[in-house]
Amino acid sequence: MRQFLSGAWSTLLGDRQLLLLCISLFIFYLGGGAVLLLVPILAEKTVGRVEFVGLIMAVPAFISLLLSIPVGSLSDSLGRKNVLLAGFASMILPGIFLSISNDAFLLVVAMAFLGLGYALITTSSRAFVMDFAPRDGASKYFSFINTASSLGTAIGPFLGGILLVGGLQQGTLLIASLFIFTCAFAGVVSLSLRETVKETTSVSKGLKLLSKDGFYFRGFAEYGKLKSIGGVVFGLTFMLTFLDRAVWTFEPLYYNEGMNSYTVGLILSMFIIPYILFEIPGGFLADKYGKFKTLFLGLLVAGFSLILFGSTNSPTVLVAAAFLSTTGLALAWPSISGLLSDESDSHNRGQIVGVWNSSENLGFTLSPILGGLIAGYYQSISKVFTLVGVLFLFACIAVVLFKRSNKIV
After folding, report:
1. In the CATH scheme, what architecture does the domain 12-192+204-405 have?
2. Per-domain residue ranges for the chain?
3. Which of 46-50, 95-99, 172-176, 379-383 has the lowest mean pLDDT?
4. Which of 82, 200, 240, 269 measures 20 to 30 Å from 387, CA to CA?
């Protein structure tokens, strides 16, 4: 353990780019976690039905789904740093709209700007990592930035729960102010990043390239070069993000069913904290013992734990099941990221990440909608988690079959 911690610490401190990116993402997601706790509560208070909550929660992912591929192309031409800074700057707008939102229209506008910001930030930051990560350490590097993001997201719901104690109206204003501050601070830290794209163009030239070259076709053409591995990464990313958005959409609704805000925030954080504890070890395990072996173990643990989460009303068991399910995902995510990074070409990585992000945003988009329909049909939000757990167990079987058919050690 001491050797592992020493190695992890030396990796983080030994790469200034990695350290700065981790700090900026941690700061940003600190405010983002509080916002993700707030939005479903606001949505249900505004529209009154869980099905419509799902539609509102799907807005950011739908916008990001449309924009991820062109943003990836822009990061190849304008540079990762410029796109990342634009993302942090654009996130100030949803903070403003949330602070004044008193109807569904303003809430939808805020969510649309959230989608724009997430497309800019996630695409550019992941392409950044692909640029400077060593080929045999991609899973490890992705685990660092994912852990930094998860640490911020884990603390965020606690802060959001505390800020909501004084009431929804006051809490909304406080959370929106926190979000604006964290976005601005993250942008300041990102100014010290070194650009990894050697030749950048102006904004006008970058936009002209998009209009001329059919960026959607080029993006999928680049991703298609990954062949079967690309399909595995696309499908698994969709599944994991489907669960992620289901958690953020439906778990906070326990607050409206009478559970106190501290407990709601605690359970939500249990879906995040294992990322902090186990994602970096998961990255080291994937690079050392094999990505498919680590991936299978993670999906197996997550699947059984989610079935348990959907089968109980006990707060104690909910906390434990949430923790175990995300422990599995913490093992799976670095393997997925590493598989994509290992197979991607050194050129046009922004386009590849754009398509990868589109699979993520497809999960984010469909999860609130389908989850809302499932919860409405069964009159129970717990059924959503049970069904996702079953799908994860089927994914375990699919991973084994793929590994055997492709004779992967």
Report:
1. Up-down Bundle (1.20)
2. 12-192+204-405
3. 46-50
4. 269
